[in-house]
Amino acid sequence: MSRRVVRQSKFRHVFGQAAKADQAYEDIRVSKVTWDSSFCAVNPKFLAIITEAGGGGAFIVLPLVKTGRVDKNYPLVTGHTAPVLDIDWCPHNDNVIASASDDTTIMVWQIPDYTPVRNITEPIITLEGHSKRVGILSWHPTARNVLLSAGGDNVIIIWNVGTGEVLLSLDDMHPDVIHSVCWNSNGSLLATTCKDKTLRIIDPRKGQVVANNFEEPVALQEMDTSNGVLLPFYDPDSSIVYLCGKGDSSIRYFEITDEPPFVHYLNTFSSKEPQRGMGFMPKRGLDVSKCEIARFYKLHERKCEPIIMTVPRKSDLFQDDLYPDTPGPEPALEADEWLSGQDAEPVLISLRDGYVPPKHRELRVTKRNILDVRPPSGPRRSQSASDASLSQQHTLETLLQEIKALREQVQAQEQRITALENMLCELVDGTD
After folding, report:
1. Second label for 171, Cα 20 to 30 Å away, from 229, 402, 405, 414?
2. Is residue 47 a contact partner of residue 38, using CB atoms and an 8 Å limit?
3. Does residue 181 contact residue 191 with C-beta atoms inside 8 Å?
4. CA-CA distances (angstroms) from residue 208 to 89, 202, 399?
5. Residue 361: left (phi > 0), alpha (psi -120 to 50), or beta?
6. Which of 361, 325, 340, 284 is nearest to 146 (CA)?
7. How far apart are the first and last CA of the chain?
8. How far apart are CA 166 and CA 183, in angstroms?
9. What Rg value do the Cα atoms of the chain yield, rounded?
10. Which residues pair with 269 in a beta bridge?
């Protein structure tokens, strides 16, 4: 009798679990715009969610530690004149996020480490170049300040955010609406999908499609009959791809290998409520002490719920096989170096002792935005936004110092009053 051979894999028992109720983010009015983006972006410091907004577009940014019920007056990031369609955190600066809107613009924002008192309304820079709505954003994985945008005009633009200039414009490669765009690991190539049902591999610096003949798949997996868009998230460290169906209530995950059949089904995490969007935490934001290999942020109608994927291990020691060195926050190239033809792999960091975020770094625009056709007030707005942020921080520090001085003064007065009361008591006792 033949024995069935079970494939060996350390990820065969990946276990998904929703976080406890007090670890969720409640009372958030998640956007109801009909769009195929994930509506959520997360990094080791912040959670950003596109929200409902009257008369424009907005998103909310919460520190990861601020769980529970969110105050209805919590400050938003506002500035777009139409709904926000996509947001993406800069991989090289955890305080910088880009937003794309139906108003045809991209805005780049500096998020302070402290909670602002009012809405954040002034971006660092506004990028204008698309003629229709902008629905896709993606930062370059290794080059500093390089941002990709794709719009309803079937055009891909690659920007240098540090100068506000267009580095490359790919405007004749897609005959129809672009559905998604993704960089490869070192940012030398792009993969795009289009409404014409064609997958293209593009060398953006040469302006050429280097491959788009994918008639025969290496593997075919039947999913289900749902009409929802699948949001794929790939973890290159574990070679696991997670498929989250928008409007679905499950996360399916598969392991990718180099040998046939290439794609191996692992498991499905299911819950009761469908997801309206999904955020995916970078590897450096995970809790390695709990063998956490992935964390999702599932959007409901009015809340965001973390979902944690772990590999059960009995040992308390660091699991080297689960956590190879992973991309860190330092860029490997400058924008000009990448544009000139240089490529570099991501700068890796070890997660053995956990990840400690670097100190707050500010993005500064060093050159006038050449796309800004408005009056000269544009550049001054960018500068004033930076100055306003610094001014707010200075004001906060001044207030804290004044409070400290007042507290010391009150304590001194209390001591003086106590001393006077004691002297009075002694005088009264003496007269008796």
Report:
1. 229
2. no
3. yes
4. 28, 6, 56
5. beta
6. 340
7. 110
8. 18
9. 26
10. 251
Which of 212, 164, 216, 74 shows the shortest CA–CA distance to 368?
164
Across the strands, what pairs with 230?
Answer: 245
The owner of tokens 């690659």 is 158
Q: Measured in whole angstroms, how far is the alpha carbon of residue 42 from the centre of its chain?
A: 4
Dihedral-angle region of residue 46 (phi above 0 means left; psi in -120 to 50 means alpha; beta otherwise): beta
DSSP H helices in 267-376: 335-339
How far CA 12 is from CA of 129, 253, 310, 326, 397, in Å, comes to 47, 10, 11, 22, 51
Residue with tokens 């005959």: 175
Q: How far apart are CA 102 and CA 131, in angstroms?
A: 10
Both tokens assigned to 162: 């540090």
Q: How far apart are CA 120 and CA 329, in angstroms?
A: 24
Q: Helices marked H in 146-293 — which ranges?
A: none
| Residues with pLDDT less than 70, the chain | 1-6, 213, 224-227, 359-360, 367-394, 431-432
How confident is the model at residue 2, as a pLDDT? 46
Compute the Cα dihedral for 329, 332, 334, 338 and give only its sign: negative
Could you tell me if 279 and 297 are in contact, meaning their C-beta atoms sit under 8 angstroms apart? yes
pTM: 0.82
- Read off the tokens for 137: 């954003």
**How high is the pLDDT of residue 390?**
56
Whether the CA torsion 79, 85, 90, 94 is positive or negative: it is: positive
Residue 39 C-beta-side C-alpha neighbours within 13 Å? 29
